[in-house]
Amino acid sequence: MKRYFTLFLLNFIGVTLFAQKNNFQNYAIQTLDSIYSKFGNTKNQLLAEKYPFDENFKADYLDNNQQAAQQKKYAYLWPFSGSFSAVNTLMELPKTKKAFQFILDKKVLMGLQEYRDESRSPIGYASYLNTAPPSDRFYDDNIWLGIDFTDSYIHTKKINYLTSAKEIWNFVKSGEDDKLGGGVYWCEQKKESKNTCSNAPASVFALKLFMATNDRYYLEEGERLYEWTKRNLQDPEDKLYWDNMQLNGKIGKAKFSYNAGQMLQAAALLYKLTKNKQYLEDAQQLAEACLGYFFEKSGELSFPKLKNSNLWFHAVMMRGYMELAAVNGNQKYLAIFYENLEFAWKHMRDKEGLFSPDWTLKDQHQSKWLLDQCAFVEMYARLAKAGY
Fold it and tell me: Which Gene3D superfamilies does this UniProt record tie to the protein (predicted)?
């Protein structure tokens, strides 16, 4: 992989970088460039999962010890998909749209094709490469891709993006049945639980498909999945969201920022599309709940700081806050993210342009995870789009 691929391309097509008023846009571009120079390679468009490469790395998020124990040269689908979201978000910025659509088509989607699984029906994306032994297929992994493909279509009107999104929707629908009154499973090979991470984003996915097609079927699906998730997985005490419900009705009560963030985004989108004020009330209530739970006050700082957690979870939570600001005009929460991301740029970034995930600054994590880096690109680009 040629170093500084992204900066080279942008300068080639005449995009001016590093103007003072576009700091966050520049931060996003520089970080993406670091990703391709450190995680990329000269043989294909795939990315490594860890930098430096860690031969002992085990993907504990797979819930499959056998697959996790196998040494993998390239990233699993989930962290790779973070590069799709990162490039997509930069593509939404007017001055860089052309450059990043080129990167999307020639790098991201060419790499993504390596995860496409046509050996099983319906077609979907597997958690690892299609040239390796068959791997599990996760509905949430596919939903994140579906959201990105739909966003790509909305911002370019390129029909093949929408075709890909609809194909993924077909896969997602195959993961729902009548058990527990509906809801999408987490994993095709382990239909043991229905998770917030596979239902809240499915609602967002459906609502975006409605925005892309004006087909009311998707609006109805988005509303139905939102209501199912709220009814079954919302904690009535603090209004946040539990992680999952097993088929025996037992609740997994962990709370993660991306789960709440996707319900926040779905509520804001539903208000935008239906004008039902209950959805706006839901969104505003959840926004405050997230602020109280996923941020913490520090005596040394003038703003609430993000708690240590999966950084990409926080990036997905920010999508919800972005959507809320778009419908109610309140910049309060985005200003808090701005302060956090300025802090991260100054204190959490190493000499190679990569970020530690530790907001306390106690552990600088010599090993860097691909998805963490993609999360920062996405967050900087989203705030740049919002005018920061």
Answer: 1.50.10.20
The length of the chain, given as a count of residues: 388
pLDDT average, residue stretch 145-173: 99
Q: How far is CA 70 from CA 58, 83, 299, in A?
A: 8, 23, 45
Domains and their CATH numbers in the chain: 5-385 (1.50.10.20)
Please tell me the least confidently modeled range out of 4-18, 53-67, 168-182, 366-380: 4-18
Structure tokens, 64: 């499959």
Query: Is the bond preceding residue 201 a cis peptide, omega within 30 degrees?
Result: no
Q: At 166, list the tokens.
A: 């609809």
Distances in Å between the Cα of 214 and the Cα atoms of 122, 166, 226 are 25, 13, 19
Per-residue model confidence (pLDDT) at position 116: 99
User: How many percent of the chain have pLDDT more than 70?
Assistant: 92
The residue behind tokens 């629908």 is: 173
Q: Which class for 294: exposed (0-12), middle (13-18), buried (19 or more C-beta within 10 A)?
A: buried
Question: For the chain, first and last CA: distance in Å?
Answer: 31
CB 262, CB 247: distance < 8 Å: no
- Measured CA to CA, the distance from residue 349 to residue 214 in angstroms comes to 42
pLDDT in tens, 44-75: 999 999 999 887 788 878 876 666 566 589 99
* Identity of the amino acid at 281: E
Contact (CB, 8 A) for 309 and 254: no
E strands, 253-346, are 295-296, 305-306
What sections of 180-244 are H helices per DSSP? Answer: 196-213, 216-233
Our CA dihedral for 201, 294, 39, 62, rounded to 10 degrees, sits at -60
pTM: 0.95
**CA atoms of 380 and 4, how far apart (whole Å):** 19
Q: In whole angstroms, give the CA distance from residue 310 to residue 111.
A: 24
CA dist 161 and 177 (Å) reads 27
Whether residue 304 is preceded by a cis peptide bond, meaning omega within 30 degrees of 0, is no
The residues with which 237 forms a beta bridge, in sequence order, are none
